[in-house]
Write a structure and sequence with these properties.
The protein is built from four helices and eleven strands; from the N terminus they run βαββββααββββββα. It is an alpha+beta fold. The longest helix is centred in the C-terminal third of the chain and has 29 residues. The radius of gyration is 23 Å and the shape is elongated. The two termini are 30 Å apart.
């Protein structure tokens, strides 16, 4: 039997537009000047890895073309390739421009990997705190990138700001057993208190809904004989889990925007979506 709190909820958190600023090398924008005429609403995807990495460009939203730089161990030994349903999507001269830009962008992204993750964390923390603008610290703090300028992007998100009516601030979702992704727990970040559980319900292996269960007083670390209630409802658990997902989506969008800016491109239209 399906109960109301076993099904996926409608999202009530309104959309926000947040302006985010990132430090990028001053020459990044100019590095793509010769490339820009070849592009139409491009998407650039960066997948770093210690053993294998990929930088993939979808240069045109209306064409089935994919330009790929892939490597094992070192970006300096990367292989360049173009995959297309068209016989010759680029001229020989255009291919030279593409390859040079891809290799330069991959080096820049690889060297900025730690700075990218720090910037993404900063954006998420700022938005969670209620800010509609996230900027790198400027006063008394050395720039993360020498000779840098500021690149901007507008992100669309459903991440909510602080809820003054709730005793719980940020709530994280964690896996108590990495081998069982169908069981998640919700934990108050500031206190470490267990607030509830989310379990995937499946029918013959096919997930169809989720069950939210408020933590019992003893497992939440409260006195069992306490006369007060936990003040947590299944609706709270649903909201907190949704906010966890929204933060993950915001982090992905912030990372995608910064990858584009570091490569000299505008942030993609996809990060400003509404839905």
């Amino acid at each position: 039997m399906r109960r109301e709190h076993d099904v996926v909820p409608g999202r009530a958190t309104p959309w926000r537009n947040v302006l985010v600023e990132f430090e990028v090398p001053s020459g990044a924008r100019a590095s793509a000047d010769r490339l820009r005429p070849l592009l139409d609403d491009p998407e650039l995807h960066w997948t770093p890895g210690l053993r294998r990495g990929v930088l993939a460009l979808l240069p045109r939203s209306t064409a089935m073309v994919r330009v790929v730089l892939s490597w094992e161990w070192s970006v300096e030994a990367a292989d360049f390739s173009v995959h297309s349903l068209e016989p010759d999507p680029f001229t020989p001269d255009e291919l030279v421009v593409l390859e040079r830009w891809m290799r330069a962008s991959a080096r820049r992204l690889a060297s900025a990997d730690d700075a990218v993750e720090a910037a993404v964390t900063r954006v998420v923390d700022d938005v969670v705190s209620g800010l509609d603008r996230s900027a790198p610290p400027r006063s008394g703090v050395p720039r993360a990138v020498e000779g840098s300028s500021i690149g901007t992007a507008v992100l669309g998100t459903r991440v909510a700001g602080p809820d003054e009516t709730s005793p719980h601030g940020r709530v994280d979702v964690r896996l108590p057993d990495p081998g069982d992704p169908g069981h998640e727990v919700l934990v108050d970040v500031s206190t470490g208190r267990l607030l509830g559980h989310r379990t995937t319900l499946a029918d013959e292996g096919d997930p169809w809904a989720f069950r939210y269960v408020v933590a019992e007083a003893d497992e939440a670390g409260e006195a069992v004989d306490d006369d007060t209630t936990s003040g947590v409802s299944t609706a709270d658990l649903v909201h907190w889990h949704d906010q966890h997902i929204q933060r993950q989506m915001l982090a992905d969008d912030a990372r995608q925007a910064l990858v584009h800016l570091l490569a000299g491109l505008d942030a993609p239209a996809s990060v400003g979506y509404r839905g």
